Amino acid sequence: MPNYIEGSSLKLTPVDRIFVNAEFYSGEKFENAELHRMFPITGLTQYIALIDSEGNEIGIIRDLNDLIPESRDVALGCLDEYYMMPRIKRFIKMSEKFKIWMWTVETDKGICTFEIRNHITAIKPLYDGRILIKDANDNRYEVPDVKKLDKKSYNMLAPKI
Description:
By secondary structure, the protein is of the alpha+beta class. About 15% of the residues lie in helices and about 45% in strands. The protein folds into 2 domains: about 5-80; about 90-160, no CATH class.
């Protein structure tokens, strides 16, 4: 049975962009711990595993929103860095040759071009309006809200979802 961590019993402080020091109000401390999403696609703030420096699970935080605001911000920053996924702002160009799609997009990290070999398995609409795209090299991209895309971008993507 998992060891659930109550948010009010834990304080997280950053070590660097991925690692944290975890201090429980009982006095127990863990240095260079990591946070991992148990459900990395759908559970952005829920069921977060706290892993010690040896790779052992310390416990599970049910919801980051239960942490004190400073610890929640540290956790979200570390998770954003660990699960970094460029967010697509708009689709610039799309072409297809021999059933391989070549897309040029603008992301929050800049403009990039990638190819998709099978749009049926590479493009995953999620229940919350996000779309995940996996390119031919297993890089992942996110469209945060398909409804907020400009008309041209939406028209490029819509037939594929």
